Amino acid sequence: MIPAMPASVAAATSHRRPARRGSSRQVTVAALRFGRLAAMWGVASLILVAGVWGSWGTAQHVMLTKGREQGTIEVARCGADTCSGPYTPLSSGSRARARVVIEKTVAVREGRTYTVVIKPGGDDVVRSGPAGVLYAWVPMGGALLLASVVVAGGLGRARWGWVLAGSGTVLLTAAFLAV
Fold this sequence. Notes:
By secondary structure, the chain is α+β, with helices and mostly antiparallel strands. Helices cover about 50% and strands about 20% of the residues. It has helices at about 5-15, 25-65, 130-135, 140-155, 160-179; strands at about 70-75, 75-80, 80-90, 95-105, 115-120, 125. It has a 5-stranded mixed β-barrel with strand order 1-3-4-6-5. It is rod-shaped and about 105 Å long.
Protein backbone atom coordinates (compact mmCIF):
# COMPACT_ATOMS: atom_id res chain seq x y z
CA MET A 1 0.00 0.00 0.00
CA ILE A 2 1.19 3.51 -0.82
CA PRO A 3 1.46 5.91 2.09
CA ALA A 4 -0.59 9.12 1.86
CA MET A 5 1.15 12.38 0.95
CA PRO A 6 1.47 14.86 3.82
CA ALA A 7 -0.84 17.88 3.48
CA SER A 8 2.05 20.39 3.41
CA VAL A 9 3.63 18.66 0.39
CA ALA A 10 0.31 18.39 -1.42
CA ALA A 11 -0.35 22.11 -0.92
CA ALA A 12 3.14 23.07 -2.15
CA THR A 13 2.82 21.11 -5.40
CA SER A 14 -0.75 22.03 -6.26
CA HIS A 15 0.15 25.46 -7.66
CA ARG A 16 2.31 24.01 -10.44
CA ARG A 17 0.96 24.15 -13.95
CA PRO A 18 0.46 20.95 -15.87
CA ALA A 19 3.18 20.22 -18.49
CA ARG A 20 2.47 21.79 -21.88
CA ARG A 21 2.74 19.85 -25.11
CA GLY A 22 4.92 22.36 -27.01
CA SER A 23 7.94 22.79 -24.82
CA SER A 24 10.60 25.34 -25.73
CA ARG A 25 12.96 22.54 -26.78
CA GLN A 26 10.46 21.24 -29.31
CA VAL A 27 9.95 24.73 -30.69
CA THR A 28 13.71 25.22 -31.02
CA VAL A 29 14.15 21.91 -32.81
CA ALA A 30 11.32 22.75 -35.20
CA ALA A 31 12.79 26.20 -35.92
CA LEU A 32 16.24 24.74 -36.56
CA ARG A 33 14.80 22.11 -38.87
CA PHE A 34 12.85 24.74 -40.79
CA GLY A 35 15.99 26.89 -41.04
CA ARG A 36 18.05 23.97 -42.36
CA LEU A 37 15.42 23.09 -44.96
CA ALA A 38 15.07 26.72 -46.04
CA ALA A 39 18.85 27.04 -46.36
CA MET A 40 19.12 23.84 -48.42
CA TRP A 41 16.28 24.91 -50.72
CA GLY A 42 18.07 28.25 -51.13
CA VAL A 43 21.38 26.57 -51.97
CA ALA A 44 19.77 24.16 -54.44
CA SER A 45 17.87 27.01 -56.11
CA LEU A 46 21.01 29.14 -56.28
CA ILE A 47 22.94 26.30 -57.95
CA LEU A 48 20.21 25.79 -60.56
CA VAL A 49 19.89 29.53 -61.27
CA ALA A 50 23.67 29.75 -61.68
CA GLY A 51 23.51 26.84 -64.15
CA VAL A 52 20.88 28.61 -66.24
CA TRP A 53 22.81 31.88 -66.02
CA GLY A 54 26.06 30.20 -67.12
CA SER A 55 24.38 28.44 -70.03
CA TRP A 56 22.16 31.25 -71.28
CA GLY A 57 25.07 33.47 -72.36
CA THR A 58 25.78 31.09 -75.23
CA ALA A 59 22.44 29.32 -75.55
CA GLN A 60 20.55 32.50 -76.42
CA HIS A 61 22.59 32.91 -79.60
CA VAL A 62 22.21 29.27 -80.58
CA MET A 63 18.53 28.85 -79.78
CA LEU A 64 17.15 32.25 -80.81
CA THR A 65 18.63 32.43 -84.31
CA LYS A 66 15.91 34.50 -86.01
CA GLY A 67 17.55 37.59 -87.47
CA ARG A 68 21.09 36.43 -86.69
CA GLU A 69 23.80 35.73 -89.21
CA GLN A 70 24.28 32.01 -89.77
CA GLY A 71 27.00 30.27 -91.71
CA THR A 72 30.02 28.00 -91.48
CA ILE A 73 33.55 28.42 -90.24
CA GLU A 74 36.47 26.41 -91.54
CA VAL A 75 38.88 26.36 -88.62
CA ALA A 76 42.27 27.32 -90.05
CA ARG A 77 44.29 28.12 -86.94
CA CYS A 78 44.01 27.58 -83.19
CA GLY A 79 45.74 29.47 -80.40
CA ALA A 80 45.71 28.91 -76.67
CA ASP A 81 42.07 29.98 -76.09
CA THR A 82 40.53 30.62 -79.50
CA CYS A 83 40.43 29.30 -83.04
CA SER A 84 39.83 31.30 -86.19
CA GLY A 85 39.08 30.86 -89.84
CA PRO A 86 37.06 32.15 -92.78
CA TYR A 87 33.30 32.51 -92.50
CA THR A 88 30.95 31.46 -95.29
CA PRO A 89 27.37 32.77 -94.98
CA LEU A 90 24.33 30.48 -95.16
CA SER A 91 21.54 32.92 -94.22
CA SER A 92 20.28 35.80 -96.33
CA GLY A 93 21.72 39.15 -95.31
CA SER A 94 24.88 37.60 -93.93
CA ARG A 95 28.21 38.60 -95.46
CA ALA A 96 31.38 36.57 -95.90
CA ARG A 97 34.25 37.35 -93.55
CA ALA A 98 37.91 36.52 -93.95
CA ARG A 99 38.30 35.75 -90.24
CA VAL A 100 35.95 35.00 -87.37
CA VAL A 101 36.83 33.73 -83.91
CA ILE A 102 35.39 30.74 -82.06
CA GLU A 103 36.22 29.63 -78.53
CA LYS A 104 38.71 26.76 -78.45
CA THR A 105 37.13 23.77 -76.74
CA VAL A 106 37.15 20.01 -77.08
CA ALA A 107 34.34 20.53 -79.59
CA VAL A 108 36.49 22.53 -82.06
CA ARG A 109 39.35 21.05 -84.06
CA GLU A 110 41.68 22.60 -86.58
CA GLY A 111 40.85 21.74 -90.21
CA ARG A 112 37.15 21.00 -89.60
CA THR A 113 34.10 22.96 -90.71
CA TYR A 114 31.28 23.85 -88.29
CA THR A 115 27.91 25.56 -88.62
CA VAL A 116 27.91 28.69 -86.51
CA VAL A 117 25.94 31.78 -85.52
CA ILE A 118 27.64 35.16 -85.28
CA LYS A 119 27.23 36.94 -81.95
CA PRO A 120 25.86 40.47 -82.44
CA GLY A 121 28.36 43.30 -82.53
CA GLY A 122 31.54 41.49 -83.51
CA ASP A 123 33.25 38.63 -85.25
CA ASP A 124 32.81 36.06 -82.49
CA VAL A 125 30.83 32.93 -83.39
CA VAL A 126 29.27 30.01 -81.51
CA ARG A 127 28.42 26.56 -82.79
CA SER A 128 24.83 26.07 -83.89
CA GLY A 129 22.63 23.08 -84.54
CA PRO A 130 21.97 20.25 -82.09
CA ALA A 131 25.62 20.01 -81.03
CA GLY A 132 25.75 23.75 -80.34
CA VAL A 133 22.55 23.67 -78.27
CA LEU A 134 23.73 20.73 -76.19
CA TYR A 135 27.19 22.21 -75.72
CA ALA A 136 25.68 25.54 -74.63
CA TRP A 137 23.70 23.81 -71.87
CA VAL A 138 26.68 21.89 -70.41
CA PRO A 139 26.94 24.27 -67.40
CA MET A 140 23.29 23.49 -66.61
CA GLY A 141 24.07 19.76 -66.70
CA GLY A 142 26.80 20.27 -64.12
CA ALA A 143 24.45 22.37 -61.99
CA LEU A 144 21.84 19.60 -62.09
CA LEU A 145 24.38 17.08 -60.85
CA LEU A 146 25.54 19.36 -58.04
CA ALA A 147 22.00 20.28 -57.01
CA SER A 148 21.06 16.60 -56.89
CA VAL A 149 23.51 16.07 -54.04
CA VAL A 150 22.06 19.00 -52.09
CA VAL A 151 18.48 17.90 -52.69
CA ALA A 152 19.08 14.23 -51.81
CA GLY A 153 21.46 14.78 -48.91
CA GLY A 154 20.50 18.14 -47.44
CA LEU A 155 16.77 17.97 -48.01
CA GLY A 156 16.28 14.22 -47.74
CA ARG A 157 14.46 14.08 -51.07
CA ALA A 158 16.18 11.06 -52.62
CA ARG A 159 13.76 10.68 -55.54
CA TRP A 160 14.12 14.30 -56.56
CA GLY A 161 17.87 13.95 -56.23
CA TRP A 162 17.87 10.96 -58.56
CA VAL A 163 15.71 12.85 -61.08
CA LEU A 164 18.09 15.82 -61.06
CA ALA A 165 21.16 13.57 -61.29
CA GLY A 166 19.63 11.58 -64.14
CA SER A 167 18.72 14.75 -66.04
CA GLY A 168 22.22 16.17 -65.65
CA THR A 169 23.81 12.90 -66.71
CA VAL A 170 21.61 12.63 -69.80
CA LEU A 171 22.37 16.22 -70.79
CA LEU A 172 26.13 15.86 -70.35
CA THR A 173 26.23 12.49 -72.11
CA ALA A 174 24.20 13.83 -75.05
CA ALA A 175 26.52 16.83 -75.33
CA PHE A 176 29.57 14.55 -75.24
CA LEU A 177 28.16 12.29 -77.96
CA ALA A 178 27.01 15.19 -80.16
CA VAL A 179 30.36 16.96 -80.07
